[in-house]
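Researcher: Next entry in the queue.
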Amino acid sequence: PDSNMLMRVLHYSAGITKTLRFAGSDMPFRAAACTGALYHIEVYVVCGDLAGLSAGVYHYDPRGSALRSLREGDYRQVLIDATGQEPAVANAPAILVYTDVSWRNAVKYQAREYRHAFWDSGTIIANTLAITEASSLPASVVTGFVDESVSELLDLDAQREVALTVVPLGY
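Model: Structure for this entry, 171 residues:
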């Protein structure tokens, strides 16, 4: 994918697709529904050089529909190693990592928060797979990986945010 295709995938997976005026303020809605509209699922991009985007580790900001750089350089090898040399990851020019910011949902759902992590990430990933299929962009879902390696790459505090799924894009 080039940067435009990547941003299209991110927008229709986790981006804000409409805003409604309610009680005197704007209420943004994301492409994928989320329990309690708490939007606890985050998306990160790990990529090599793409047309329009330098190699790096990025966080997707749905409010600005933008990528925020976390690290410069090609860090895909970390994900290749973390997934046990998964071929789809090893051959992908861009890899999405979906995470759960557990405290955001736990304030409302408490001990059941972990269930919502998988329900809501599944909804977002379904959107990702739909838009990649419509765009003839190969994508797959990888759930087996070394948590610590992925968390370290993304600089996650495991008490607050955990990696759930890796989705390689392209070949």
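Model: The mean pLDDT is 91.
Researcher: Noted, moving on.
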